[in-house]
Amino acid sequence: MKVLVLGAGVVGTAAAYYLAKDGHEVTVIERHEAAARGTSQSNAGLVSPGDATAWASPSALKTFLRGLWNHELGIKVRPSLDPYFYAWSLRFLRECTVARMRANTQVKLRLALYSRDCINALSETTGIHYDERKRGILYFFRTQKSLDTGTDNYRYLGEHGLPIEIVGRDRLVELEPGLAGVKEKIAGGVYSPIDQTGDSKQLADKLAAHAAEKLGVKFLFGTTVQGLDIEGDRVRAVMTSAGPVTTDAVVISMGPESGLLGRRYGIDLPVYPVKGYTVTVPLEDESKGPTMGGADEDRLIGYSRLGNRLRMSSTAEFTGFDRSFKPRDFNSILNTGKDLFPGAFDEKKALFWAGLRPMMPNSVPVFGQAKYRNLYLDTGHGHLGWTMACGSGKFLSDLVAGRKPEIDPQGLLYGAAP
Ligand SMILES: Cc1cc2nc3c(=O)[nH]c(=O)nc-3n(C[C@H](O)[C@H](O)[C@H](O)COP(=O)(O)OP(=O)(O)OC[C@H]3O[C@@H](n4cnc5c(N)ncnc54)[C@H](O)[C@@H]3O)c2cc1C
Question: Is the beta carbon of 10 within 6 A of some atom in ligand 1?
């Protein structure tokens, strides 16, 4: 069957790979000149089932409301005239109960764990490497109070299948010698040994090349999706800047733009952009940098070691589709980086980037057939799309093939929220 995948982020590229492995004739339409030049370009690099806790929670509700007027917080909310922002916010607020948070978290954890197996298998089968590190991730807290409250979410993940170790500061530094210099500033943390890190742009680039060369996937780069040509209960063609492309099936994987396209065709797809920032800097002295991924939970900074580079990330900002940034947007990331790893890097060599997380109100991505018989979704991966991309692609390919998925689909299908 002819399948069009819309969007060559890490999610669309992974979907194209698995669909092509099933024997479909796959074409990917991407407005940029290469894969992973949108949100997947420069994320924090964490492949982290340990980060599966849904964003919408009772504490997020308070932070979200405080973020309306206090723009120094990790969450910044800039009210806009966009009615869609208010509709999304209401749905987000409805997800902020303990019960909803737990239901959403369980579904995300299931997909994230599955996806970790999928990316490892994919790397093994294809021989693709992506500056990956498989040493776990440390989530740490600076005060006893934040440690006591913060570990609750991790214990919940632990009860639902994530191996975790709660660690004091001595054990923490034993695991991560790179944090020895700040040992006294850290109360303790959680070690998730099966978490990993890696560069999603590298994976997507190499996977696109592999899929094109070995599986015949066609990438129409530099081509913008303009709309869908609907005929009765199916999509007949996708309208693009290069003309219409006819198809048997379509997969929407357009990251933050997915909701814009869906809405035009009456598909309830509340994907909203949530901006974040990253800094990538070469390690001048590798012995002073981290040996595994980590997250400073009090400062809301995540980081990973990608080869000899350090990638650091922060902030959730509601500011529509604005991808612009100024040097001062990176101050808190750089200051925390210098605090954690003094002497490890030269900030003058830092590369700055901002991207938009394709966020669903409940933080759970959405899959499967939507409204039209041959239209599928694989989108809305929010803050965890790098972690969930490969499992998502495999799951999607099972749905398109009409096969029983390897993963329990409960809570993941369009129209059946957890
Ligand atoms: C600061 C930050 C840090 C993050 N850190 C992590 C992390 O550590 N771990 C993790 O798991 N996740 C992380 N994420 C989230 C993760 O990066 C995203 O969930 C993931 O990249 C989404 O992938 P995607 O393929 O859905 O979207 P994208 O990568 O945005 O891909 C969508 C593609 O669709 C294309 N497109 C859109 N509209 C059109 C159109 N009209 N025509 C043609 N093409 C179109 C875009 O150009 C783009 O290439 C982070 C995100 C941010 C912003």
Answer: yes
Q: Which of 254, 312, 366, 390 maximizes ligand 1 atoms within 8 Å of its Cβ, making it the mutation to test the pocket?
A: 254
Beta-ladder partners of 368: 377
345: DSSP letter: B
pLDDT value at residue 62: 79
The number of the ligand 1 atom at minimal distance from the alpha carbon of 277 is 1
Residue located nearest, by CA, to atom 15 of ligand 1: 383
Is residue 365 within 8 A of residue 379, CB to CB? The reply is yes
For the Cβ of 151 lying below 6 angstroms from any atom of ligand 1, the answer is no
Mean pLDDT, each 10-residue run in order, the chain (418 residues): 98 98 98 98 98 92 73 73 91 95 98 98 98 98 94 96 97 97 96 98 98 98 98 98 98 98 96 97 95 95 97 93 96 96 97 98 97 98 98 98 97 84
- Nearest alpha carbon to residue 320 among 79, 67, 62: 79
Rounded distance from Cα 387 to ligand 1 centre (Å): 12
CA of 255 to the centre of ligand 1 (A): 5
**Probe target for ligand 1 pocket from 5, 32, 39, 323, with the most ligand atoms within 8 Å of CB:** 39
Residue 231 buriedness (CB in 10 A; 0-12 / 13-18 / 19+): exposed
| Domains present along the chain, CATH in parentheses | 2-401 (3.50.50.60)
pLDDT at 146: 93
Residue nearest to atom 33 of ligand 1 (CA): 7
* The pLDDT of residue 60: 82
Distances (CA, A) of 389 to 47, 51, 203: 10, 15, 11
Distances (CA, A) of 76 to 71, 334, 357: 5, 18, 14
Q: Is the CB of 13 under 6 A from ligand 1?
A: no
Write down the pTM of the prediction: 0.97
DSSP character at residue 278 = E
Q: Where are the beta strands (DSSP E) in 331-417?
A: 351-359, 366-369, 375-379
Q: How far apart are CA 226 and CA 207, in angstroms?
A: 26
